[in-house]
Write a structure and sequence with these properties.
The protein is of the alpha/beta class. Among the domains are: 173 residues, P-loop containing nucleotide triphosphate hydrolases (Rossmann fold); 77 residues, no CATH class. It contains 17 helices and 24 strands.
Amino acid sequence: MHGDEVSRPRAETAATTEQPILRLQSVGKRFPGVVALRDVSFEIARGSGHVLLGENGAGKSTLINLLGGVLQPDDGEIWFAGARYQPASPLEAFKAGIRVVHQELHLLSNLSVAENLLFEQVPSRWGLVNYREMNRRAAELLAEVGLDVAPTTEVGRLGVAQMQLVEIAKALCHESKLLVLDEPTATLTAREVDRLFAILHRLKAKGVTTLYISHRLEEIFEVGDEVTVLRDGQHVTTRALDGLSIPNIVELMVGRTIADHGAIGTAAPDGEEALGVSGLKLAADSPEISFSVGKGEIVGIAGLVGSGRTEVVRALFGADPKAGGTIRIEGQEVEIASPKDAVAHGLCLATEDRKGQGLLLEMSCAENMTITDLTRVSRRGLLQRKDENDAAARLVRGLRVKTPSIHQAVRTFSGGNQQKVVIAKWLFRGPKTLIFDEPTRGIDVGAKAEIYELLGNLAAEGKGILVVSSDLPELMAICHRILVFSKGRISGEVPRAEFDEHRILSLAYQEYGRVRAS
């Protein structure tokens, strides 16, 4: 071996003599009170599809930030394309040939889609921005990822799933040696996922290496040749995916087997109405939407990106204006013009964008959990820290939130634990009906099982639950009924006894004229 090569074995099937594109040797990273990475060593073969897996908190995000120049290692060395790799900033990582598509989106919401896509390579003419050329190039990139929006659309008007496709398109705009994708399909539906896989196969054929991170384990076999597993900040294994099963991988990730959790029984409860919606219109010319959710019932909302799923729940919550319709809570018609109105009536929304809209990242776990009803932890208008801490400690125990302290800032939490804090703050409020938009986005298998169990427990207590998810198997596992949206309208309703993935997808495509429901 050469002196600069890793001293431990390569991946078990990596029999090539070609120099790896990326090599980590004894890499470590520490934060106050936390060791994020400890003695991590592995290699990624040039031109391969490599998968990085681990539970939330395993060190994946820290590793990605090291590669992307956001952080620098405290120990060890990183080698990229045959040279020592020490980027001091994301710009240096970008110039070296590493492009990172982060799970948490990094777009400029007040600029157009085209301006975001070509921000680093703005086309100009006679010293002025050539907007015609910019929009033309942007339209080509959007077509490649299958996003049907105008290049001139302001990014802030897009949903999270659409923003994710913009991030992917932005990564394709530049030649990269290593493309890092962190949970790229978390909010995408089957059509968008298939298109992304086709793009990755084309990039691989051109010699581009991909590092792919996902909690959707069934999809990693589509894009990966080898897998690296991290657990508690340490390297567990790097091996070929061929021959591994999902249960094998889960056990490597968590160090134990995890049972398949179904949150509900097979029959929907015969309860009273928890939430009723009649003639809801998102705009003056949009179709009317009507449905109900019973007490003790979990109702799912499925549909393609842009089908109106998130827009509907945001309108119900008062986060976006509606053009018409009525909303009922426990049979009583209510007026909801703002989130404050919704919460006052017992309707709570766990948003799909937990960092941007669901949490106060710089505040502590305890502060985030109790902020929805400060009157419960105050006396004579003064906040009582002991009451706040006691309430937060009970919620941490009840939801099994992993944190060294209730005073820890939630920005340091893993995705799964951040989601539990979002749920905890609404439980502290004492809701009648809860809406969950992508409740397990970017969450590992262990945390998913816990959230499914929690949803089942809430339904058993008589709460009405409405769940929006891009993950059809998830909806089919936890819901009593599934409403299918297609181009802003409900194209069908499927009861649990008739759940069938093909039928649901057919209804999702119905208004697009591509697949007709039988």
